[in-house]
Amino acid sequence: MTFTFVTLFSNLIEGYFGDSILKRAIEKGLLDIEYLNPRDYSKNKHLKVDDTAVGGGAGMVMNPQPLYDCLEDLQKKDEDVHIVFLTPVAKPFTQNDAKRLAKKSHVAFVSGRYEGIDERVIEKYADEVFSIGDYILTGGELASMVICDATARNVEGVLGNSESLEVESFETELLEAPSFSKPQTYEQISVPSEYLKGNHSKIRSLKFALSEAKTKFFRPEQLLKHKTRKSYEK
Ligand code: ADE
């Protein structure tokens, strides 16, 4: 699967792939990471890519021309490319989106800096627009890395151990049960004794109860969603 980052600041992103689980997947040829810089497409003699907002307002907005030409080029090279824009004015990205995007052959992320991107670019080229949460980042780069990471780990073979994808938070709306490593007792605190007894059906029941308790405490709306779905399935 190919990910293309359309950004003025590829250096913000490059380091991440040089040192992560994803590095191994790149070396194995499962993932390919590419970068496109809209500045390389600017027809302005000073290679400007942004300007003040028409109609007033604070900050600089990215101009349409460099992005139009850049994204036209991208689509010409691969007509299957799925173009994703990152902005706080969008639907929230979820685990279901990560799994869905992982089935695509090529996803491109377009990151805006400054006050954003000229809306005409989004209207013309966006297949999807995502926000990663209700807060404002200084640019879309971090958001694009979050979505790339969450998507890439769902690509077949990337994690190596496909089991780790099996019982994850959000797969059933519930948050995952707590995990423990060795030793069994550390600073006088033991892991739940049921985890040690080897009765897998009992361990599963306990994990489910802990999962529900965590979800009720941290994300009550998710628990409600889970219960509603279960009652529909009955
Ligand atoms: N750019 C700035 N803030 C963002 C957010 N919360 N999500 C996605 N892109 C953004």
TrEMBL record:
<dbReference type="InterPro" id="IPR002649">
    <property type="entry name" value="tRNA_m1G_MeTrfase_TrmD"/>
</dbReference>
<dbReference type="InterPro" id="IPR023148">
    <property type="entry name" value="tRNA_m1G_MeTrfase_C_sf"/>
</dbReference>
<dbReference type="InterPro" id="IPR029028">
    <property type="entry name" value="Alpha/beta_knot_MTases"/>
</dbReference>
<dbReference type="GO" id="GO:0002939">
    <property type="term" value="P:tRNA N1-guanine methylation"/>
</dbReference>
<keyword id="KW-0808">Transferase</keyword>
<keyword id="KW-0949">S-adenosyl-L-methionine</keyword>
<comment type="function">
    <text>Specifically methylates guanosine-37 in various tRNAs.</text>
</comment>
<keyword id="KW-0819">tRNA processing</keyword>
<comment type="subunit">
    <text>Homodimer.</text>
</comment>
<protein>
    <recommendedName>
        <fullName>tRNA (guanine-N(1)-)-methyltransferase</fullName>
        <ecNumber>2.1.1.228</ecNumber>
    </recommendedName>
</protein>
<keyword id="KW-0963">Cytoplasm</keyword>
<feature type="binding site">
    <location>
        <position position="112"/>
    </location>
    <ligand>
        <name>S-adenosyl-L-methionine</name>
    </ligand>
</feature>
<keyword id="KW-0489">Methyltransferase</keyword>
<dbReference type="GO" id="GO:0005829">
    <property type="term" value="C:cytosol"/>
</dbReference>
<feature type="binding site">
    <location>
        <begin position="132"/>
        <end position="137"/>
    </location>
    <ligand>
        <name>S-adenosyl-L-methionine</name>
    </ligand>
</feature>
<dbReference type="InterPro" id="IPR029026">
    <property type="entry name" value="tRNA_m1G_MTases_N"/>
</dbReference>
<dbReference type="Pfam" id="PF01746">
    <property type="entry name" value="tRNA_m1G_MT"/>
</dbReference>
<dbReference type="GO" id="GO:0052906">
    <property type="term" value="F:tRNA (guanine(37)-N1)-methyltransferase activity"/>
</dbReference>
<dbReference type="InterPro" id="IPR016009">
    <property type="entry name" value="tRNA_MeTrfase_TRMD/TRM10"/>
</dbReference>
<comment type="similarity">
    <text>Belongs to the RNA methyltransferase TrmD family.</text>
</comment>
<feature type="domain" description="tRNA methyltransferase TRMD/TRM10-type">
    <location>
        <begin position="1"/>
        <end position="222"/>
    </location>
</feature>
